[in-house]
């Protein structure tokens, strides 16, 4: 279908925007979506490969809702990187549409969003906005759920599922769901009451195969054909890199662990270094320095990544800090980094395609044993192969260690059937959080209504197991009642004042119960840090250190009770209280101004994981302070601890960090040179300029 054929069916502003980007012909999935009722308000589920045009389907529906129907539109994705990327794309395409992005504070109604027409949010943020009674929900005409196959993800899926269930009940908005290929798309479409648009169209032809030794094995007319790779390396993935570079292309190699990804990148660095041009080396060196100095003091991981990047290769995983990931992605997009060695999280993040993709590790350790990854996951990773703007074809490959495995792997992963996505709603913490929210919002106030709602979820749609649903709901209600978060008044379930606040804070009621009971006895620094570390929100906990094992015994005896063990029976999975206690000691070291490198080595953690823990700790300690206010418990010490955690400082630096531009390093430098308060800065202008430099000092003085 030609785009001009839509004249009269779609507002001219939308057509002009699309044409201005060089798009004149619609892809098969886009045409199918239009014919299925995209512009007439039909719910649509698009299940097609990466780069097949799903985003434009969502864009047209949203813009049509705003321009033609005068109703807001919302774009929802499970990961922040995707939300940010789509916001930038839409804002560039429609600068005259008031678009906003909101992913942060989960304890805010963000009333300013009512002024905007197009909203980009994370799953948790929209759920939080509904909990805070966002009044504009009724004015939304189109809701896009990107990556809807994430329903089966144990960490993100349950919230997404209950959010969709809730929106289908409270809103008449059109639903546009986007998915990679899945095994039960018809079942998912039926639950969404959506028209299914299913296509295997891909603008870039994809050659799928298995790498073994120095060869790639492809399937052709029921026979395996072989292709010899260029290069000399005897290591298959490195030989593939040589072959890819000989074609002046880029590659992404997926590993099962961060350690494997880092090791692969380090080995490839020596291979690539001699293949770079002088100008490339110059630009890579600049990117390398930015990565090295991403933190106030570089860690060994920073140095390792910087060295790799200077050679034209990078590793990419959740252990990097955000700015380092952004530099790696941007430098790869510019064609300077030739190979990325990544964990599988990159397959679900920003749009970062390469000509060649290799899934090197097909097994992953689940904590107990090693298991094969799913066909769905491999297909998701394959979606990174083939760049629509640069390539007419791409390669999506898996690695085999033995020749005899080639055919088996090909049958399973290359031509095998994707698994059906399942519901992950059975997680206790999710049910606790959402059932409390239903009651706190006056959305559902009776046992029968809650049971009926859960039955309308994807879980209920698939299984229809009334007895299991009823048992789970009753157990959660019993806990919420016993903990004082809900009451029953003449047969109506109501949230108590503190129960409503727990729901607004977006924390697990179990965490809230723990903090309320433990808070009065948390008098010193370590116990306050354990207060926040021993919560569901701070999972996964750290592996215990010898210091933590010894110090935990001391603290347990000091409290003189089994309080620390009290919630073991309520926690799902294995629970060892020394693990969250280890997290508390790590936070204590951070507040004691121990440098990042020492903390990373001591607790076997990455910079990215450290800063993720600090971010979560800030959220939990804020929640603890809010709960303390309602319970008439002094929160003064918790407020000080929160500031110290934010900056990683001892108490003596609290006054100095009130000023912007002064963090833990600069504050310590000033303090150790006798400038210990903001008032001291006023009277030591020359010394401050000498210690901080004139540019930073000027910004500091401007605040005085």
Short structural description:
This protein is an alpha/beta fold. 48% of the residues lie in helices and 13% in strands. It is globular and about 75 Å long.
The CATH class of the largest domain is identified as Alpha Beta
In whole angstroms, how far apart are the ends?
A: 63 Å
* Fraction of residues in H or I helices: 40-55%
What name is given to the CATH topology of the largest domain? Answer: Rossmann fold
* CATH superfamily membership of the largest domain: P-loop containing nucleotide triphosphate hydrolases
The radius of gyration is 27 Å
SS strand fraction: 5-15%
This entry's quaternary arrangement is: single chain
Number of individual domains = 5
How would you describe this structure to a colleague?
With 704 residues, the chain is α/β, with parallel strands linked by helices. It folds into five domains: 3-198, P-loop containing nucleotide triphosphate hydrolases (Rossmann fold, 3-Layer(aba) Sandwich), CATH 3.40.50.300; 205-414, P-loop containing nucleotide triphosphate hydrolases (Rossmann fold, 3-Layer(aba) Sandwich), CATH 3.40.50; 428-495, Arc Repressor Mutant, subunit A; 507-648, Sec63 N-terminal domain-like fold (Orthogonal Bundle); 656-703, DNA polymerase, domain 1. It has 30 helices and 19 strands. The strands form four sheets. It has an eight-stranded mixed sheet with strand order 10-9-8-17-14-11-13-12, sandwiched between helices. A seven-stranded parallel sheet has the order 3-4-2-5-6-1-7, with helices on both faces. Strands 15-16 form a two-stranded antiparallel ribbon. Strand 15 and strand 16 (370-372) form a beta hairpin. Helix 15 (428-440) crosses helix 18, helix 15 packs across helix 19 (497-505) and helix 16 packs across helix 18. It is globular and about 75 Å long. The protein starts with 11 loop residues before the first helix and ends with a helix. Residues 561-565 and 568-572 have low confidence and may be disordered.
């Amino acid at each position: 279908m030609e785009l001009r054929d839509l004249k009269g069916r779609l507002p001219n502003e939308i057509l002009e925007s699309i044409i201005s980007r060089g798009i004149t012909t619609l892809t098969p999935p886009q045409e199918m979506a239009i014919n299925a009722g995209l512009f007439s308000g039909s719910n649509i589920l698009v299940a097609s490969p990466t780069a097949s045009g799903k985003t434009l389907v969502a864009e047209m529906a949203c813009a049509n809702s705003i321009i033609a129907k005068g109703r807001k539109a919302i774009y929802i994705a499970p990961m922040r990187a995707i939300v940010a990327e789509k916001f930038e794309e839409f804002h560039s395409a429609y600068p005259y549409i008031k678009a906003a992005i909101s992913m942060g504070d989960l304890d805010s109604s963000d009333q300013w969003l009512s002024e905007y027409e197009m909203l980009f949010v994370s799953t948790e943020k929209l759920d939080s906005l509904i909990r805070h009674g966002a009044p504009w929900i009724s004015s939304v005409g189109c809701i896009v759920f990107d990556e809807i196959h994430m329903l089966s993800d144990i960490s993100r899926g349950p919230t997404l599922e209950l959010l969709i269930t809730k929106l289908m009940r409270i809103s008449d908005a059109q639903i546009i769901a986007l998915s990679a290929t899945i095994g039960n798309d018809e079942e998912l479409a039926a639950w969404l009451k959506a028209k299914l648009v299913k296509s295997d169209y891909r603008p870039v032809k994809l050659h799928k195969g298995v790498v073994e030794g120095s060869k790639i094995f492809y399937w052709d007319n029921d026979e395996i054909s072989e292709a010899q790779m260029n290069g000399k390396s005897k290591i298959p993935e490195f030989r593939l890199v040589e072959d890819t570079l000989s074609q002046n292309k880029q590659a992404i190699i997926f590993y099962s662990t961060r350690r494997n990804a880092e090791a692969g990148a380090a080995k490839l660095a020596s291979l690539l270094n001699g293949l770079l041009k002088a100008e490339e080396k110059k630009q890579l060196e600049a990117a390398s320095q930015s990565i090295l100095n991403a933190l106030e003091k570089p860690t060994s991981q920073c140095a390792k990544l910087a060295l790799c990047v200077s050679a034209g290769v990078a590793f990419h995983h959740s252990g990097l800090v955000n700015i380092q990931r952004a530099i790696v992605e941007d430098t790869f997009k510019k064609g300077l980094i030739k190979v990325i060695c990544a964990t599988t999280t990159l397959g679900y993040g920003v749009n970062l395609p390469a000509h060649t993709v290799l899934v090197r590790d097909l097994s992953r350790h689940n904590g107990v044993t090693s298991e094969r990854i799913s066909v769905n996951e491999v297909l998701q990773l394959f979606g990174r192969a083939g760049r629509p703007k640069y390539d007419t074809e791409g390669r999506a490959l898996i690695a085999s260690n033995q020749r005899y495995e080639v055919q088996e792997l090909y049958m399973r992963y290359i031509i095998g059937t994707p698994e059906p996505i399942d519901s992950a709603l059975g997680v206790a913490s999710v049910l606790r959080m959402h059932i409390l929210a239903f009651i706190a919002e006056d959305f559902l106030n009776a046992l029968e209504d809650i049971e009926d709602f859960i039955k309308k979820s994807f879980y209920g749609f698939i299984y229809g197991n009334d007895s299991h649903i009823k048992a789970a709901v009753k157990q959660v209600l019993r806990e919420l009642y016993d903990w004082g978060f809900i009451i029953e008044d003449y047969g109506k379930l109501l949230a108590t004042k503190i129960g409503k606040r727990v729901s607004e804070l977006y924390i697990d009621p179990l965490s809230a119960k723990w903090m309320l009971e433990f808070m009065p006895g948390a008098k010193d620094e370590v116990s306050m840090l354990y207060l926040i570390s021993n919560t569901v929100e701070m999972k996964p906990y750290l592996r215990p250190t010898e210091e933590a094992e010894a110090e935990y015994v001391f603290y347990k005896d000091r409290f003189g009770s089994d309080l620390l063990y009290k919630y073991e029976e309520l926690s799902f999975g294995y629970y060892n209280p020394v693990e969250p206690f280890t997290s508390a000691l790590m936070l204590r070291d951070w507040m004691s101004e121990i440098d990042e490198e020492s903390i990373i080595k001591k607790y076997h953690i990455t910079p990215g994981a450290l800063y993720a823990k600090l971010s979560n700790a800030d959220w939990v300690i804020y929640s603890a302070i809010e709960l303390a206010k309602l319970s008439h418990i002094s929160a003064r010490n918790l407020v000080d601890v929160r500031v110290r955690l934010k900056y990683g400082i001892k108490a003596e630096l609290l006054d100095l960090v009130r000023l912007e531009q002064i963090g833990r390093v600069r504050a310590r430098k000033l303090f150790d040179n006798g400038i210990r308060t903001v008032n001291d800065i006023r009277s030591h202008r020359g010394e401050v300029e000498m210690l901080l430099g004139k540019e930073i000092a000027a910004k500091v003085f401007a605040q005085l």
